[in-house]
Amino acid sequence: MTIEEIRSELQKRGMTQKELAAMLHVHPVTLGLILIGKNKLTEQLAAHIELLFDNMRQNDPVEHTLTLPETVVERWMPSFRTLPESQRSAAILDVIHKAVHWLICEGEKQFTPQELANIRAFCEAQSNPPAPTPYTQDDEEPLLSAADGNEG
């Protein structure tokens, strides 16, 4: 989503930048600087804004998505760039599973009971995906594994 598209959506909805900033949990000044081109609109923020507008169009509850730049995945899994493209998805899923587990363990008390139930349902649905193609080299142990639940 571009800055122009965001401005257009705000105008169509009769929504202020301040209202959008509150929904995104960003400071209104920060969003204002982005929308006038003084600060960069990141791909991640653009994706979140697009998701928010899409959910508003559909009257759906807002969903949260997690996007991880390859540099983040690479920090958690140094061999990521050496993996064949066909194995990268499995590696990313492994990192996401570990991140979700960590978030639940560390932030459980901050969630409402309904949010916690939704997160647990999501994790249970993801806990039995098809077995991924092995993605580690023979001489190294995987840094993360969906099966090693408690390591942090």
Write the layout of secondary structure elements.
Layout: H1 3-13, H2 17-24, H3 28-35, H4 43-57, H5 70-76, H6 85-107, H7 113-126
Helix pairs in contact: 2-3, 6-7
Given the structure, what is the number of helices? 7
Low-confidence stretches: 139-152
Q: What percent of the residues sit in helical stretches (DSSP H or I)?
A: 55-70%
Largest β sheet strand count, sense and barrel closure? none
Description:
By secondary structure, this protein is mostly helical. It has 7 helices and no strands. It has helices at residues 3-13, 17-24, 28-35, 43-57, 70-76, 85-107, 113-126. α2 crosses α3 (28-35) and α6 runs antiparallel to α7. The longest helix has 23 residues, at 85-107. It is globular.
List keywords for this structure.
152 residues, mainly alpha, 57% helix, 0% strand
Quick recap:
Helix content is 57%, strand content 0%. It is mainly α and 152 residues long. It is globular and about 45 Å long.
